[in-house]
């Protein structure tokens, strides 16, 4: 339910903020011609560094003349461009045609690979988060795992783009990743590549009155899907307003900025959602909520963890600043920069960091993340087995309930069907908090 009247339409249209398969946030220009015809205004008009340009030309000539194997000009120049961008920050990059196409595919919800979101840490490839229902998540890969080898090839010093290119491949083909978890010993995981179809929104009733809404990734249509899911949860609750809702953003690596704004707007009725600031005027955007409230003011708990990044942090930060939700879990990833994707000739593009984004209260998430209101670490639950204990209702000749209530013998306490909150400690704690809030409010 994004209403475009709420914000100015800049010449650099912000189409998406995503961590995608590259751990980045991005916005795309409407057309390459616009970038060529109207470069961003800047006050930096320093003269060209002629000495450095002469050195560059000399190095180019020396390589061509003396390197052990012939190297063509195109290869050398493209490598030079990649080098320029790789030394700026982990998210700026030169996108060749395949990489540019894959970046666009990743926000459509379908692409080939392992279903793993990655970044770079200390020269190694680090898992930001596995995507639900993909080869990576089914193999038990977790946020924070370091990928030290891909098919036996060390990743130390490998660029994120090269790592992603190696992990992607023909569906059905195998790949072996060597992982290290929390300083432990390296171990191998063999995976089979697949076509990754990401369903961005999942929902269900945890129990009567209490809903669960999971957003796995912010895609172009996620805002609309969340609106539908909220309506469906109310319908499943007999048409009654929910007593509480858990919004699960754990291991959500980000996605489309507009979708993050729309999802936030479903729970907010006024005020700023997010704003961006950069060096050029075109990078400054502000997004505000409209009065509509698809959530009907339902008590809300937002779950986050170290795999919650970028657009996820925008949503969690906005709801936390407006005190619309209690944020629970562990510190988020801390990805608070925006990359602008600038199309070039021949289906190539530059992905360039152009801005930082800020929560409504002015917090920069970059390299810090969202700190939950209530910290709840992940834990494994071990349920005690129910003993064969007799109850009053099991005794022969027991008196009936004075108010006419039905007997409840021990046999009526048979194990219920497994529920998500029974195996997920953080989710169970979120549900308990919602129930407590309702009790104290007299609902």
From TrEMBL:
Keyword Protease tagged: yes
Secretion signal, residue range per the UniProt entry: 1-27
CC per GO annotation: outer membrane-bounded periplasmic space
GO biological process: proteolysis; signal transduction
Keywords: Hydrolase, Protease, Serine protease, Signal
GO molecular function: endopeptidase activity; serine-type peptidase activity
Span of domain PDZ: 100-168
Stated name of the protein: Carboxyl-terminal processing protease
Protein source organism: Stutzerimonas balearica DSM 6083
Lineage: Bacteria, Pseudomonadati, Pseudomonadota, Gammaproteobacteria, Pseudomonadales
